[in-house]
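Q: Please design a sequence for this.
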């Protein structure tokens, strides 16, 4: 793809465009890392886009206007740090609700997270009144638009997330438990793995990363949009699947997800530079997903989860 697009347009193989691609995929990669952990465990999360919007809106609202506590007769103003912590806390709370609904209420992940999608989207509209929250200031905007050592801040932030997630998957007992639960929940339970705790943790982590993604989007736009994150869950799942993670659980890697996000990012960027119609872009992206997953399945050795 890189070679082909480089031959078809003069602007694709430039350093500025390369950084632009990495900046553009940072939000999807942040969501996709959490989605990878969830899918490896045998679950799925359809609420990441809505939680992204809610987290970003809460951070923007608290930073811009603070919050009134009428029953105490006080008004609290929030610093940038307080707003960031609040957004991450909102994401963690949403993830915990997903995890508890799945583990305690025994709801299917599809149903539980679909319900959270509706709840988070509704809460975002209630919080914002249906209007964007703007004018958050350059200090907050630095999170999404700034640079350090010539590298965009979102790239640094996502790089740290990717490294930590890869380390957890490959080098910790929790990572081994995660794959065990996704491969066979009953076998993991018989082996002494605390299955419900593993599931709860991965959904909380997914929620936290949705909160971080919400901060990146809000900081980059200098506003919190009520409809932010629409369709992001589909791009996230697509990146994870293209990266080789099995939707049946038990198989996948963070590195594969990074490659999946890069494939989608390069494709989007190249089609835009070639001035391809947005409608055809959707068709082409769908075909790429089909081809990538088909190649992965046909290339899997016999006896290996496909």
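A: Design:
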């Amino acid at each position: 793809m890189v070679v082909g697009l480089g031959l078809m347009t003069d602007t694709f193989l430039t350093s500025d465009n390369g950084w632009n691609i990495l900046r553009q995929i940072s939000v999807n990669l942040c969501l996709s890392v959490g989605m990878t952990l969830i899918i490896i465990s045998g679950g799925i999360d359809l609420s990441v886009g809505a939680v992204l919007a809610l987290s970003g809106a809460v951070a923007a609202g608290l930073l811009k206007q603070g919050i009134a506590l009428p029953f105490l007769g006080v008004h609290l103003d929030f610093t940038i740090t307080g707003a960031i912590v609040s957004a991450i806390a909102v994401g963690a709370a949403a993830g915990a609700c997903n995890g508890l609904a799945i583990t305690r209420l025994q709801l299917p992940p599809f149903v539980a997270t679909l319900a959270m999608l509706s709840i988070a989207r509704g809460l975002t509209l209630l919080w914002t009144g249906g209007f964007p929250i703007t004018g958050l200031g350059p200090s907050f905007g630095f999170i999404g638009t700034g640079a350090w050592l010539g590298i965009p801040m979102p790239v640094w932030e996502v790089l740290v997330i990717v490294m930590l997630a890869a380390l957890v998957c490959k080098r910790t007992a929790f990572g081994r438990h995660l794959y065990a639960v996704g491969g066979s929940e009953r076998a993991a339970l018989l082996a002494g793995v605390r299955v419900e705790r593993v599931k709860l943790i991965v959904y909380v982590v997914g929620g936290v990363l949705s909160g971080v993604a919400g901060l990146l989007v809000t900081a980059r736009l200098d506003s919190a949009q009520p409809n932010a994150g629409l369709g992001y869950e589909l791009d996230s799942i697509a990146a994870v699947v293209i990266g080789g993670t099995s939707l049946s659980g038990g198989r996948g890697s963070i590195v594969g997800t990074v490659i999946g996000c890069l494939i989608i990012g390069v494709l989007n960027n190249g089609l835009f530079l070639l001035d391809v119609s947005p409608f055809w872009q959707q068709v082409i992206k769908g075909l790429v997903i089909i081809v990538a997953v088909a190649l992965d399945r046909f290339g899997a050795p016999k006896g290996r989860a496909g």
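Q: Thanks. Anything notable?
A: The radius of gyration is 20 Å. The longest strand covers residues 67-69.
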